[in-house]
Design goal:
52 residues; mainly alpha; 67% helix; transcription; TetR family transcriptional regulator; Homeodomain-like_sf; transcription regulation
């Protein structure tokens, strides 16, 4: 399950970064797009830069 969640977060982040730009997207945005809370993103990535 953790691997699937990580994959969903990466896909959501890639889509948001492509549409809005890296600096315009927040951790909460990525979490919401993947169906989790913003703080839950930190279970998989140390920070937004780590998603790259």
């Amino acid at each position: 399950m953790a691997g699937l969640r990580r994959k969903l977060l990466l896909e959501a982040a890639a889509d948001l970064f492509a549409r809005q730009g890296f600096h315009a997207v927040g951790i909460d945005d990525i979490g919401a797009a993947a169906g989790v809370s913003g703080p839950a993103v930190y279970r998989h990535f140390q920070n937004k830069d780590a998603i790259l």
